[in-house]
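Help: read this over?
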Amino acid sequence: MIRILLCGFAALILQLIACTGSTTSTATDTTNSTIKADSLVANPDNGDLLQTLQGKWQSEDDNTYIVEIVGDKMNHYNGGKVSITSEIEIDASCLSNACKVDSMDLSDGWCFVEKGQYDAQCNLVLKCTKQALQYRAIGAANATLRFTKK
């Protein structure tokens, strides 16, 4: 039985060598293979991304400004009072119409869209960890917001 397994393994190795056209592998080839394999990792789904936004976030630039995300609702607090409440929708690939208003390349990030009564604001997430949130309001000048978890 072991002899059959060894023969099968040897045949597999020979096929791999024949497919590469070389009996030696360079470090560059190995690195490129690793990069290609890593790029095949599946992106998280919208529910996972929404979950990462949940909670209260204190502005790093204005200590009276807090955003709170509960489910698919986002509340903006100024001075302890709710100033805006909106529904949010995750756009993992930043392809919704609300996200196509800027010439910025959004392919490396993910977005969430705040849906107000009359409009929708796309926000590109620059950083989102358990303790830090940074996003940029697409189409707005100097609109990067930075928060820490409260």
User: Anything to note?
Assistant: The first strand starts at residue 55 and ends at 59.
